[in-house]
């Protein structure tokens, strides 16, 4: 498919809370948006009907004739080779043929499917904190922990679209059982719910509003609460170990961290950078830079579009082309 500066990509960002869609241009601009709540506890057909509503709204826009491809970033696991998704937080979709269903509703446009962590990575590499870096790890640290890789200047989704899923690297060999079935995963220690659980177990008490979120723990840590500070220090240690392992394996230059937990700022980033020095000790891994993500909640849409553009040869100026 030749490069076409007027071409647009229809992007979908599918999660357990919302299904977002947009038409994205070659500069990463979101020209038209549509969104529906995810009926996550309904059956698969009801969830797909919400996706279809988003696509129907996008197709009704006068810009639709310029759409050349569809990019989909989905909560995972995903299987890009099979075109299926099995999001942990959407029980009605198990091996759901999302690519085929989307194709039926877009006139057979070529579609690219990646995990949501990979989509975030594509976005940060294209227009965010990893722009201009040839080798990067980008992470979403939120309710879960996901990620993706840029290697040799190109997004590296892997055969199934899940490469770089750092949340399920084990960093505590005898640690607690993770929802994935493994033990001591980064996600089991560093995700928002587990930061809050660790702080509560250590004696942190929520304020009068009863907020038990990781954001509330971060606020307490900034105020000097020791159990809250310790919970973030433990999360930072787990993230540092996972980043160092990745740097040792594939020689990344930068680790970009986004998601709700990253909103804690220096409560997370200061101990993370300090502990990274303990783990990334080899000369080729020790220079990894840790940066906050830039794109926020639009990263999934921008990244889904970028992944599709890379696969289908759109937008010749896209990084990596």
TrEMBL record:
<dbReference type="InterPro" id="IPR000600">
    <property type="entry name" value="ROK"/>
</dbReference>
<dbReference type="InterPro" id="IPR049874">
    <property type="entry name" value="ROK_cs"/>
</dbReference>
<dbReference type="InterPro" id="IPR043129">
    <property type="entry name" value="ATPase_NBD"/>
</dbReference>
<comment type="similarity">
    <text>Belongs to the ROK (NagC/XylR) family.</text>
</comment>
<protein>
    <submittedName>
        <fullName>ROK family protein</fullName>
    </submittedName>
</protein>
<dbReference type="Pfam" id="PF00480">
    <property type="entry name" value="ROK"/>
</dbReference>
């Amino acid at each position: 498919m030749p490069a076409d500066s007027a071409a647009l990509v229809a992007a979908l960002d599918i999660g357990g809370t919302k299904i977002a869609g947009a038409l994205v241009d070659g500069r990463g601009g979101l020209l038209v948006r549509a969104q529906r709540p995810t009926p996550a506890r309904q059956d698969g057909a009801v969830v797909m009907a919400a996706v279809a509503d988003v696509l129907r709204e996008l197709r009704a826009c006068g810009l639709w004739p310029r759409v050349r491809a569809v990019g989909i970033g989905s909560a995972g696991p995903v299987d890009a080779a099979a075109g299926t998704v099995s999001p942990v937080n959407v029980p009605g979709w198990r091996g759901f043929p999302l690519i085929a269903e989307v194709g039926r509703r877009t006139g057979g446009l070529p579609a690219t499917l990646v995990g949501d962590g990979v989509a975030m990575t594509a976005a940060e590499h294209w227009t965010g904190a990893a722009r201009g870096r040839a080798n990067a790890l980008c992470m979403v640290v939120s309710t879960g922990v996901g990620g993706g890789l840029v290697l040799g200047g190109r997004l590296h989704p892997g055969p199934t679209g899940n490469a770089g899923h750092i949340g399920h690297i084990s960093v505590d060999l005898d640690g607690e059982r993770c929802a994935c079935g493994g033990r001591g995963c980064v996600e089991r220690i560093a995700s928002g719910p587990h930061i809050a659980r660790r702080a509560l177990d250590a004696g942190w008490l929520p304020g009068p509003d009863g907020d038990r979120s990781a954001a509330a723990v971060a606020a307490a840590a900034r105020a000097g609460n020791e159990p809250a500070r310790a919970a973030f220090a433990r999360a930072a240690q787990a993230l540092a170990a996972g980043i160092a392992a990745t740097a040792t394996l594939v020689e990344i230059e930068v680790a970009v961290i986004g998601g709700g937990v990253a909103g804690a700022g220096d409560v997370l980033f200061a101990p993370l950078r300090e502990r990274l020095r303990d783990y990334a000790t080899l000369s080729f891994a020790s220079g990894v830079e840790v940066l906050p993500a830039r794109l926020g909640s639009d990263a999934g849409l921008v990244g889904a579009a970028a992944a599709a553009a890379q696969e289908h040869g759109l937008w010749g100026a896209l990084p990596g082309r």
